[in-house]
Design a protein that fits this description.
This protein is an alpha+beta fold and about 220 residues long. It is built from eight helices and five strands. The protein binds zinc ion. The site of zinc ion (ZN) has 8 residues, from loops.
C-alpha cells in the first residue's frame, strides 16, 4: 500500500548529504494538511506536487532545486473574494546545518547570491524544505475583478484627497467622496496617456488608410 506514512518513512532514511552525493531526484505529493502555515494563508489548498533535485556544489555543500505546484484560493484583502490561483514556485537553495555555517557562507563575496537555508535535522523533511519557499512566493495581489479596489491604480493619496475634497464641496453632481476622486484621478491618467499618444495619431490614421486600400486586395485572395 502506498500511503503518505510510507512515503515519509522512506524519506526519513534519506539524509540531505546522501541525496546530494547521489544527485538524487525526489518527487512527492504532499497532502495539503501537512502545510499548516500555508493553509492559514489560503483556502481549498490542494495537495502539493513537489519535485526536488539534489546535488553538491564545488565546495561539497548540498544544493537543491525545487518545483512546487498546487492549486488554492487566495483571499483578496479588499473585496474578500477567494480567487482561484495556481501556485507554482521554483527555488534553489544551499542547505546549511547551523546558523553559524550559514553566516560563514554568506559572508563570502562569491556567495552573495546564494539562497542559504538552515535545516538542522539531517534527514529530508519536504514540508520544512518547501513551505517557506512557497509562502515567500505567494502573490500579494490576486484579484481579477476590475471593480476591486485591490488594483494598484486605485491607490489613493490622502493629502491630495483633502484638497480635492474641498474643491469639490460644491459639486454635488458626482456625490463627492473617495470613489469619485479616484475615478477622476484615473480619468486624468487616461487623458495624460492619450496626449502622449497624440504624435502617433496621424501615423495610425495613415496606416488605417493603407490597410483599407490593401483590404480590397485581401478580399480577393
Ligand atoms: Zn478583490
Amino acid at each position: 500500500m502506498i500511503a503518505p506514512a510510507m512515503n515519509s518513512r522512506t524519506d526519513g532514511a534519506l539524509t540531505y548529504q546522501s541525496l546530494g552525493q547521489r544527485k538524487a531526484s525526489v518527487e512527492r505529493s504532499i497532502p495539503a494538511e501537512k502545510m499548516t502555515r500555508l493553509r492559514q494563508e489560503c483556502r481549498e489548498l490542494g495537495d502539493l506536487q513537489v519535485k526536488l533535485s539534489f546535488d553538491r556544489d564545488a565546495r561539497y555543500r548540498v544544493v537543491v532545486e525545487g518545483v512546487i505546484e498546487a492549486t488554492a484560493k487566495l483571499p483578496c484583502h479588499l473585496c474578500e473574494e477567494a480567487v482561484p490561483h495556481s501556485l507554482r514556485t521554483t527555488f534553489s537553495a544551499t542547505i546549511a546545518t547551523t546558523e553559524e555555517q550559514a553566516d560563514y557562507w554568506s559572508s563570502g563575496e562569491e556567495n552573495s547570491d546564494l539562497n542559504i537555508v538552515v535545516i538542522e535535522a539531517p534527514r529530508l523533511d519536504i514540508v520544512e524544505l518547501v513551505e517557506d519557499e512557497i509562502l515567500l512566493d505567494l502573490p500579494s495581489q490576486v484579484c481579477i475583478d476590475l471593480n476591486c479596489g485591490n488594483r494598484p491604480t486605485m491607490v489613493y493619496d490622502q493629502s491630495a484627497g483633502a484638497d480635492g475634497g474641498a474643491q469639490r464641496q460644491g459639486d454635488t453632481g458626482f456625490g463627492g467622496g473617495v470613489e469619485t476622486l479616484v475615478q477622476e484621478d484615473e480619468l486624468s491618467k487616461v487623458e495624460d496617456s492619450v496626449e502622449r499618444q497624440m504624435p502617433f495619431v496621424g501615423l495610425k490614421a495613415a496606416m488605417q488608410e493603407l490597410d483599407a486600400l490593401q483590404g480590397s486586395d485581401d478580399e480577393e485572395v
